[in-house]
Amino acid sequence: MFFGKSKAADQTVPQSINREPLPKNCEVLTTEWGSKVYVLGTNGFCRKCLLNVSKIIQQLRPSVVSLQCSSSKLDEIKLKEEDALKKRDISPLALNLWVFCMTVFGDGLVATMLYKQMTLKSKQTGLAPDADFRQAYNERKKIPDCRLHLADLPHEAVVYRTWGVPSLREKFTYARRLYQRQKKELKDPAEEHELELDKERREQAMEREFDSLPAFKRVLIGDRDRYLAYSLKKAAEPTPTDKTPVVVGIVRNEHLDGIRANWNTVDLDVDKLTTVERKYVVYEALKYGAVMMLCTHLITRKIRNRKAWDLYFNVKKKR
User: Fold this and answer.
1) From edge to edge, which strands make up the β-sheet containing 26-30?
2) Exposure winner among 89, 117, 133, 223, fewest CB in 10 A?
């Protein structure tokens, strides 16, 4: 999905800037028609990543800036950092109450636990979630005629798939791991980002997080890798005014290897990932049905107990 004008950006960049080395976690991918895509891996709560985002966009002055987010998050990306922080500035009691309500009536246990984890990290680092995307959005506005491209799956599709695809056992297992991680002391994002630069350590961290959770690994990592590779390549397609556009893609570190692995494969079924799985509808009906049955049971139990007490005392009075 593109936002902005369709004209190409001015590619006249001083040679001294072009000779500066790119960040270590930047992958340079080339399409069949010669367009270059610079994929930068980031950690959303690391200030060093914000500097890397600014550096690569100022250095390359791309035709397109592509972000790993969906259109539903665009309003948050456009906010100032201070305003985005205020939205996450809530008390622990209100946060836990919100998590409970959203678990029962909203997006499910895993989605709300991920939201809580991002909120806690935001309080620790002083950066709102998706600060790196916000930085890229602001840097893009400084380049004339640079287009904005949103490369990720729709947020609703990701949430629905995390609810409808994994088994009940996997959901509780992954939610328990997220809860245990929140109880531990959170790592310094800068240190965590440095560890993620090593491909071997990234793979080890992925194995630890999704051990015995193949469905969650497919939904949160594998399928999104496929879609991001497809979407970034679409962003680099030639236009009437620019035959070989330069694209800068800002994605999370854990997707770098998957994007590179899927880059040269043509995935014709990738658009199916944007649709809601039918299994989700069944789970959703069961979830709300169970909630309604529980509420009905609790309400009617009080009525039944009151009638039982009234009957008991009436019998006692007659005696």
Assistant:
1) 2-3, 147-150, 64-67, 246-252, 36-42, 26-30
2) 89
Contact between residue 61 and residue 11 where contact means Cβ atoms under 8 Å apart = yes
SS (H, E, C) 154-210: CHHHHHHHHHHCCCHHHHHHHHHHHHHHHHCCCCCHHHHHHHHCCHHHHHHHHHHHC
pLDDT over 60 (residue 17): no
> How far apart, in whole angstroms, are the C-alpha atoms of residue 23 and residue 21?
7
Q: How far is the CA of 121 from the CAs of 33, 131, 236, 315, in angstroms?
A: 41, 12, 33, 61
Whole-angstrom distance, CA of residue 69 vs CA of residue 251: 9
Task: Specify the DSSP class assigned to residue 10.
Answer: P
Give 250-307 pLDDT, tens digit per residue.
Answer: 999 889 999 999 998 877 677 778 776 555 556 656 666 676 677 777 777 666 565 5
The pLDDT value given to residue 13? 43
Do the bridges between strand 2-3 and strand 147-150 make them parallel or antiparallel, or are there none, so unpaired? antiparallel
